[in-house]
C-alpha cells in the first residue's frame, strides 16, 4: 500500500540488523552501515562534534554510525583537540624562544660590542648569571618549547595524514629546532660556562682581549645559527596551525 511504512531488515555477516523505516515509494538502495563505511566517513572528513557529524550524514544520505564507531569518532575528536592545543603551545613557546634569541642577536650583542674588553666580558657574564640563577621563566619557556615540540610531533603521527604535506612540515620544524638546541648545547652553553669560570679582575689586557675575541666570535656565530633554526620552526608551526584550524 502506498505510504505504508514497512520495517526493513538487512542481513549482514553477523545476522539480522534493523536499519530504518521507509516508504515503498522510495527507491530501493542499500542502507546498511558497515564498519568499512563508518571508517570511510571518519577517515575522509573532520568534524568538531557529534552534531556536525549527524548533520553531514543527513545532508549526504549517510546511514548512522554504529555505536562502536561512534565511540571511535569521539576518541578521534578528542585527539584532534589535544593535538591542536599542543600545536598552539609549541607555536607560542618556540616563537617566544626565537624572539629572545633574535633580541640577543640584533640588540644585546650589538650593544655590548661597543664596550671595552673587560666591560664586554663583565656585562655578558652578568646577563648569563641572571639567566642561570634567577630566571625560571626563561627555562620554563626554553625547556617547555622543546617538550611541546616533541609532544606535538608525536601526536602528529597519530593525527595527521601521512600522505599529506602537514606531517612533513611538522617533522622538518622539529628537526630544525633540535639542530638549534644542539648548537646551544655544543657551543653557547660551554662558552657561557667558560666565561663564568674566568676571574676578570685578575686578567691583564692581553688575556681579556684574547678571551673576548674567542668568546664573541664563536658565541655570535652559534647564536645566529640557532636563531635561524628557531625562527624556521616557529614559522612552520604557525603555518601548520593555520592549516589545521581551517580543516578541523
UniProtKB/TrEMBL annotation:
The chain crosses the membrane at residues 85-112, 137-157, 169-189, 225-243. It comes from the Eukaryota. Coiled coil: none annotated. Keywords: Membrane, Transmembrane, Transmembrane helix. The keyword Transmembrane applies. The keyword Kinase does not apply. This is DUF1772 domain-containing protein. It comes from Trieres chinensis. The lineage of its organism: Eukaryota, Sar, Stramenopiles, Ochrophyta, Bacillariophyta.
